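Run: sequence + coenzyme A -> complex structure.
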Amino acid sequence: MQVFLTTDRMVLRRITPDDAPLLLGLDSDPEVMRYLTGGRPSAPADIDGNIRRYQGWYRAYPERGYWIAQDTGGAFLGWFHLRHPHGGDPAEPELGYRLARAHWGRGLATEGSFALLGTAFADPSVRRVFARTMAVNTGSRRVMEKLGMRLVRTFALDAPPIPGAEHGEVEYALTRTDRERAEAERHGRRPRDAARGGPRPPAPSREA
Ligand SMILES: CC(C)(COP(=O)(O)OP(=O)(O)OC[C@H]1O[C@@H](n2cnc3c(N)ncnc32)[C@H](O)[C@@H]1OP(=O)(O)O)[C@@H](O)C(=O)NCCC(=O)NCCS
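>> structure
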């Protein structure tokens, strides 16, 4: 098992071809897939293709990719990713997560994502981490807000329409500057911008 990182309650490890049944089972729950495909499950061939793609990620970018999340006893919880989309800027990786329904509402998406933000910004070349979801995916948006990400834009996705797609997609982001400001505030230091008399960022918002 190749562990990428651990949190208080989770181990994030590399995905292998043996994990196909776990990923297939996850994507077979219509509620998990509701805001991704409208509830349609993934096809086994797509899962296999994705797993092959992940192996390429690990080779090319050991600090980027998709990781299975399991609890400290080894039980499967879901997965997280930190990747830059094909042709995207490695300095601006995208965060993503998908958890089995039995584990929703325990703060796990926030916990894993927070740890991944730490690894992302440990790379000095990373300027910003972003995340996207359907505007109507309130739970996912809430995770982004709890991470201190800010709504950047609402946009239409060029994809087959599913219920709720008429409200568009949202993109949230956390810049290095905003993260450093939040860290400073958390540790009771004066934020750099505040010390300079600069503007404070607006509070996270669900509004476009
Ligand atoms: C989105 C998802 C990852 C959230 O995982 P999670 O571990 O339950 O998230 P957390 O517990 O860290 O935080 C969820 C927050 O959203 C809130 N929430 C969840 N569903 C909500 C809803 N329908 N309306 C309002 N708030 C909601 C929770 O109350 C919690 O906020 P709180 O801590 O302030 O109470 C999980 O539901 C999931 O895997 N969904 C299916 C896949 C998916 O949609 N992935 C995102 C696509 S980009």
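>> summary
Residues 32, 35, 78, 96-99, 104-110, 133, 137-140, 142-143 surround coenzyme A (CB under 6 Å). The two ends are 42 Å apart (CA to CA).
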